[in-house]
Amino acid sequence: MMKVNSPPRCPNILRLLDWFELPTSYVLILELLDPCQDLAEFCEAQGGSLDEKLARKVTRQLLKALCHCEGRGVLHRDVKPENLLIQTQSHKVKLIDFGCGDLVKDSPYMYFAGTYEYAPPEWFKEKEYQAGPATVWSVGVTLFHLVCGFLPFTTREEIIQGQLHFSKQLSLECYELIRWCLSLNPEDRPTLEQIKLHPWIQSCRRKHK
């Protein structure tokens, strides 16, 4: 967490104020956000899902945090609504909980740390994954959860098959972005920078029927 908190800091990552070492553990002193909820709780309070305007605002901030992590050589590895804090009035978002994190490397990861439902299909099929495509997969699962109100996959078999069932009408741009992020082939997924330039992130016009 120190690598992502050294100046210049990202406003969308929870700030580490100080830390000290105990005989068997470390104590981290983190900034306090008030009032705030984790994003999963916030969605429930909004009726289970967010409208696209608010989901887009949240996703933009998540992308900013993840690009900062990538630039510092850090893989979060547990991106999900429960690890995003949102200030309930301003809707400012902060990424938290780097407990599953690792350093970014070019070679595949052979060990998965994170939340099962957000794991990419290549992990279940090949027992390995690359940092960038795995992060983008978790962004896709998170975005689906935000706009639909439930997880796209709940079992290993569903993740491997990758069949998406949308619960409501979404804009065509939102639909296409989710499908792109959740491409079964990791080489077909966008990069974080490509997501930032996607039409849905920039604006939202047409409807998917």
Automatic annotation (TrEMBL):
SUPFAM superfamilies the record matches: Protein kinase-like (PK-like) (SSF56112)
Top-level taxon of the source organism: Eukaryota
This enzyme's EC code(s): 2.7.11.1
MF (Gene Ontology): ATP binding; protein serine/threonine kinase activity
First and last residue of the signal peptide: none
InterPro entries cross-referenced by the UniProt entry: Kinase-like_dom_sf (IPR011009), PIM_Ser/Thr_kinase (IPR051138), Prot_kinase_dom (IPR000719), Ser/Thr_kinase_AS (IPR008271)
GO cellular component: cytoplasm
Catalytic activity from the UniProt record: L-seryl-[protein] + ATP = O-phospho-L-seryl-[protein] + ADP + H(+); L-threonyl-[protein] + ATP = O-phospho-L-threonyl-[protein] + ADP + H(+)
GO biological process entries: negative regulation of apoptotic process; regulation of mitotic cell cycle
Entry keyword set: ATP-binding, Kinase, Nucleotide-binding, Serine/threonine-protein kinase, Transferase
Protein kinase domain mapped to chain residues: 1-201
Keyword Iron: no
Homology family: Belongs to the protein kinase superfamily. CAMK Ser/Thr protein kinase family. PIM subfamily.
PANTHER family reported for this sequence: AURORA KINASE-RELATED, SERINE/THREONINE-PROTEIN KINASE PIM
Protein name: non-specific serine/threonine protein kinase
